[in-house]
Design brief:
With 236 residues, the protein is of the alpha/beta class. It has helices spanning 36-46, 60-63, 66-73, 85-88, 90-94, 96-102, 178-189, 208-214, 216-221; strands at residues 2-8, 13-19, 25-29, 49-54, 77-79, 114-116, 122-125, 128-134, 143-147, 156-160, 163-164, 167-168, 197-200, 206-207.
Length: 236
């Protein structure tokens, strides 16, 4: 499997292009704020052909470029139905104070073809198999995408803003729920193999094993500690 990733925009949101190999069809994960140019550069450099966009959630820092990216190639975008409203109304998703700061510089809306993600479904796109897990807490419609292990390659989790290296996503914006986030960590992340590579919405990559051993939020939901987690929550 081939993965090209880069941080984009004001929030350094990670956008990923995923393909069976360089020179083949690919899926774009989370083309966020100012990501369109980076997508085009990666497509040219690696000879990729995008066939779909998949979105871990609807916050503007993850979806701001979905309309130009999808429109330039006539490809669909996949999002959980609970977050679809954010494509056209990001201010409602962020709260008026934060949203009002952004609306003057962003053009928002839905691409022509929007499709629905459901918990446990498997997307077969670009020769890939992506398992969808609904993981509410950061937003009501947050999801993760898992790829299976392959010969000599570990499984990969695109965790969005559910799980970061050393931390988790914030849950204090509209649609966030701190208790639901902890339940999602327990249900989605804890059962995964230690060697699973975690590619988050922000920051560096990590592994489930590393986070299981040291992330205070995973330690909490695993019952390894009763202390309140000390690591700050991240994301928009």
């Amino acid at each position: 499997m081939f993965i090209a990733g880069f941080p984009a925009g004001a929030w350094g949101t990670n956008c990923y292009l995923v393909a069976p190999a360089a020179g083949e069809e690919c899926v774009i994960v989370d083309p966020g704020h100012q990501a369109a140019a980076g997508v085009e550069e990666a497509v040219r450099e690696h000879g990729l052909k995008p066939v779909a966009v998949v979105l871990t959630h609807g916050h503007i820092d993850h979806v701001a470029s979905v309309v130009p990216v999808c429109g330039a190639r006539g490809i669909p975008a996949w999002i959980h139905p609970e977050d679809r409203y954010m494509l056209a109304d990001p201010e409602k998703a962020l709260g008026r104070a934060l949203g009002a700061q952004l609306m003057g510089e962003l053009t928002v809306g839905e691409p022509d073809d929007v499709r629905t993600l459901t918990d446990g479904s498997v997307l077969e796109l670009a020769g890939l198999r992506l398992t969808v897990d609904h993981a509410p807490g950061h937003t009501g419609g947050s999801v993760t995408f898992r790829t299976p292990a392959a010969p000599e390659l570990p499984p990969v989790l695109f965790s969005g803003d559910l799980l970061f290296a050393g931390s988790v996503g914030r849950s204090d914006l509209p649609g966030g729920d701190p208790d639901a986030l902890l339940r999602s960590l327990a249900r989605v992340c804890l059962p995964l193999q230690d060697e699973t590579v975690v590619l988050s919405g922000h920051g560096p990559q990590t592994t489930i094993g590393r986070e299981r051993a040291s992330n205070p939020y995973l330690l909490q939901v695993a019952g390894a500690t009763s202390a309140e987690p000390g690591a700050p929550r991240r994301g928009l």
